[in-house]
Amino acid sequence: MAQYNLGQNRLGNTLPLALTLLLSIPDLPRFDPAASAEWTLLDNANAILRAGEGPLASLPRAERVVALAPVGRLLFIETTLPPVAPAKRDALLRYAIEDKLTIDPSTVHAVVLGKSVTQQHVVAAIDRTWLVGVLAWLKQAGLSPDCLISIASRIPVDAGEWAVVLDERRGFAKRADGFVYNLDVGAGREPPFGLTLALKEARDQRRAPSALVLQSMPSRAVVAAPDAALAHQWERALDLPVRLGPSSIDNLQTLLIASKSANLLTGEFAPREAVGKWIGLLRPALIVLALMVSVHVLLILIDNWRLNGERLALEREMTQVFKAAFPAAQAIVDPPLQLQRNLQQLKRERGLPADADAQNLIARLVSLLQTLPGEPVSVSTLAVRDGTATLDLVLATADQRAHLQRAVDRLHGASFGNPVGNKSGTATDAKSTRLAVRVILRAGT
Description:
Elements: E1 6-8, E2 14-16, E3 20-24, E4 36-42, E5 48-55, E6 64-69, E7 74-80, H1 86-96, E8 108-113, E9 120-127, H2 128-140, E10 147-150, E11 161-166, E12 170-175, E13 180-184, H3 193-204, E14 211-216, H4 228-238, E15 242-244, H5 253-261, H6 275-325, H7 335-349, H8 355-370, E16 378-385, E17 388-395, H9 398-410, E18 414-417, E19 426-428, E20 435-442
């Protein structure tokens, strides 16, 4: 069960502090819920609160989880990469390390560690299947790691030196740039063969360390720490200064700094921000937004209720008017439409012009004008009143006037009228031969 250290704010109230859980991933090929792991719980000042080992279900909960990968599950590669943006660099990474791997590059997840001022970069490659298994094991226990770093990140290294970390069965040597050599430790006290080869290669490249610093493996298991006699023996065998370093178990500052620059959870494995955290931060805004939406919906419902009431009142009024005007009507389905149709019928029965008469008169006049020869005529005015349409227009030639005369004579209800300001039926423009005429067309004839 998680235990939370409490601090005080400026008002003297106690507040929970943000906790960090350091979780050492065991070096296992597969994981099950019963697998044990070492853990350390830190407060927000990175001070150790508790530590222990056990199944994931028994671990305390914390706001931040930093997982530590065993060095034996990582392959460190030194390669040259072009000076491009990080996104493009990561896309080229698989091809850059292809010739340095003995397996298919698609089966590993590779990450560039730290920042390099040159084109040489240190790359950590981890088996993709193993990484997926680790994350599934953690997820099953309700743990979502914010970052995954090599346990070697816990070891500080001074510039120009190598830190050599040992236990009874394995070890590694770490350079200041983050590159790590995996070492097999034999039963004797002689230097590991892998370390001898690494030093020879470094000397050939004129990059040999100035000294080796011996430390014990960063584990809480009881192991025999390197002693002064071992350091003296290695110094004679390797022809290189060797000294003992401090214990790396409690050196947490270096590890936490590395969690920001050497995170192995990148790309498809990058942790997703927990939805709950965002909801907690946005809860006040979401509450205000929900209240605004509720008020808006309530106002819309009230407005719809009011408009619906007005519509029903208008329908009742129209129905009453329709019944008063046409008491013989049997069924009333659409009062406005039925009222309009009955009104048009009454107009036709009493010889009054209806709306359809005006449309018909205009259509007949348009057909009349379309029969005129020559250039288009100019229409001055068109008016329809009391079933009579009056059209004033200007003709271009006398031939058009004669043709229009014959067409008017043949059209029932059509006749010539006097243009404005003239009593002879035609008017001539003083500056041209254009003729002004008026055509009158009456409905019902």
